[in-house]
Request: fold
Amino acid sequence: MEAGIVGLPNVGKSTLFNALTMSKTAQSANYPFCTIEPNEGMVSVPDGRLERITKLIPPQKVIPAALKLVDIAGIVKGASEGQGLGNKFLSHIREVDAILQVVRCFDDPDVIHVSGKVDPLSDMETIEIELMLADIQHLENMLPKAERSAKGADKDAKLKVEVMKKCLAHLGEQKPLRTMPLDEAERKAIKELGLLTAKPILYVANVDENDVEGKSPLVPAVRAAAAKSGAEVVPVCAKIEAEIAELDEADRAEMLEGAGLTEPALAVLARAAYKTLGLQSYFTAGEKEVRAWTVPVGATAPQAAGVIHTDFEKGFIRAEIYSLDDLEQYKSEKEIRAAGKLRVEGKDYVMRDGDICHFLVNK
Reply:
């Protein structure tokens, strides 16, 4: 699963990407389209539960969950018509699973805004319109072929055409597809089309150094606009976060305190992105390693086992599961088992966020 970082030029996308991934790539120049090919990187998802587990099960190493991020070039008005290499950039967005849109909520005369003024609501509208226009164009191009396929007795093909027309009608009302109710069959029918406005979105309000909590009038306005499509907003000062990312561990705490932060805002952002992607973590814990594994919300125990190794899903027998609360109460896995708190779950078990597991499989 991966998330694409998008936004207008010069809103702080690449600065944020570099901070998140602790990348040392050169900072972007102060002009549009400085990022041409998308940069990719991995970011750890901070999870305090890992530390709590390792206090009671000390391992040789700790491995957190991770997300793949893609820094996509700045989108401008007219991107859906090819402006600013728009079609190429939009195709990059089509390949990711969720969108992190960076919205500029700070003034800086030394950083040119592509529209000449800082207006985050206008920026959000510009991106949304371009993505909707791109979806309309994509659907209109694909529909004739889909209709030809639906002339026979293929029920799936007929459903696909119906859903495509439903999507076009919704977009025609200037509404992104993420706000359109779809049942599982409808969602599956158009999944491979990569529709841009159907992707979940998280807004990142890039704030001023003096507004790290996002209390300026601009951020509440962004929150209100995002809420209309059920999206969340995370305020981040990309400039401060980039500086923190460059520091040694010992110096970070001091800078965080000076900035009025209890943890890097990037930690909050990584967790919010994880949630936006519809992901959750389960853990394995032993002397060799304590590790967070990533699964979609709703994954079954065999599917979770398959994340460790594909053969584990095929050979799944059962899972032995306990909670972090049980571990902290009974202090060891042995005592959890003795207290009868170790649950044995079968193939139909739906994983819960935070489960600590052992999988028994046929090898």
